[in-house]
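Technical annex B. To support the medicinal chemistry partners, we prepared a structural model of the target in complex with 3-hydroxybutanoyl-coenzyme A, based solely on the information shown next.
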Amino acid sequence: MSYEERLQNVTVLGAAGKMGSGILLLTAVEMADLMLKPENKSKTFVLNAVDVSKEGLAGLMKYLRTQVLKVAEKKTVPLRKAYADRKDIIENSEIINQYIEDVVRIVHPSTRMEAAYDSTLVFEAINENKDLKIKILSQIDKNNPHKPWFFTNTSSVPINIIDDGVGLDGRVLGFHFYNPPAVQKLVELIVTNQTSKDITEFAKVYAKNLKKVVVPSNDVAGFIGNGHFMRDALHAIHEVEKLSDEMPFEQAVYMINRVSQEYLVRPMGIFQLIDYVGIDVVRFIMQVMNPYMQDEELHSPLLDKMISLNIKGGQHSDGSQKDGFLKYEKGKPVGIYSPEKKEYIAIEDFKAQCDEKLGALPDSVVAWKSVVRMKNKDEVLKNYFNELNVLNALGADLATKYGKRSKEIGKKLVSDNVALNEEDVNTVLMTGFFHAYGPINNYFN
Ligand code: 3HC
């Protein structure tokens, strides 16, 4: 079966979720582009968007339209060529609207699993529950006569467990996007000893067409990205617990969040990132990874406590951020949750006091947004971190310790044989988490 034939009938499971909606969008665009090729005009392309939530699917279709508009605006020249035979479409706005309609036309939203029974490729982006994944993939595989290929977006379950659990004999691989899939360039590719060459080759071509950077990871729970993220989060939580001996919890969270963002020049503070991914999702990933860990415990009683208090983060169906460790107004953090008082405390009530304790940043400080695309960013960052590392202030000390821990985690991913080399670890953090620099660097020695 050719690349195009494989993509003529595709299903995304969990399509209304955060990851599923991104995967659906990228796949819909790729399929529409294939459909618009002159040789494919008579062929049918079907992309089933399957999800348990009807409301979620309605939100997905809105998201799809807004995002395809952005995609179309960036490629009006090739689109004009693709619609060259359409004499009724002249203006750019008409071309863009036609493209949106063509992409949307491919997508068939459904709450029924049966939609996947005719697909040759199935993306799985459902809850991080191994048994549920195995049950659903088994049901599809049993009823689908095409021996479909399965791409799982699991963030933590080893692929061989899914392969063996469903009995796929190598018709599955890990194709792990990062949030938001439309923005982050990374796809972690995880194959097992059984994964067939054909499916791996297809995955590489598909990733390339989506303009993604592929990093292979060995089939170890959590892979490279979450292997780093979960340990990074546990370091932050540990630091908060230590600081909480001397100050209220919410102030400790504020400080570590600020240090992990501004001082370390990252796009988000670590607690904002945990909220963004979902406190429940982060805890779940740790739970899935933990049984496979030999010499460490990936578990946080603080995450358990937040969830028991129903503080979970994640996103509303319109994509806006839900409150978690932090409270958000128009996407910006304005408060921090106190589990003791069971309420959010306004950041402005303690910001000045905390900032004074952290101490000033070096004058050479750079914002993530400006440095991330600089050509000479290594020089700029080296200069900044050199100054930061010798500053005698709490914030600088916390940041240096944090940077060193992040580097240690990165190196362990290589020595544990999760990543093939240090460069892969750095690429994962830079393209999956949008970091301006990799954790294995010369800034923290
Ligand atoms: N879909 C499509 N586009 C999106 C989007 C989404 N869900 N969210 C943001 N964007 C776009 C915006 O529209 C904007 O596009 P534009 O430049 O064309 O206007 C662009 O991204 C930048 O967004 P903003 O200006 O609103 O905000 P930022 O510059 O702060 O970027 C961010 C937002 C890209 C989310 C950035 O803060 C970031 O990369 N944060 C880190 C996220 C991260 O670490 N992700 C990995 C999580 S771990 C994971 O996914 C693994 C899983 O297994 C748990």
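Notes passed to the chemistry partners:
The two ends are 51 Å apart (CA to CA).
The domain at 3-217 is CATH 3.40.50.720 (Rossmann fold).
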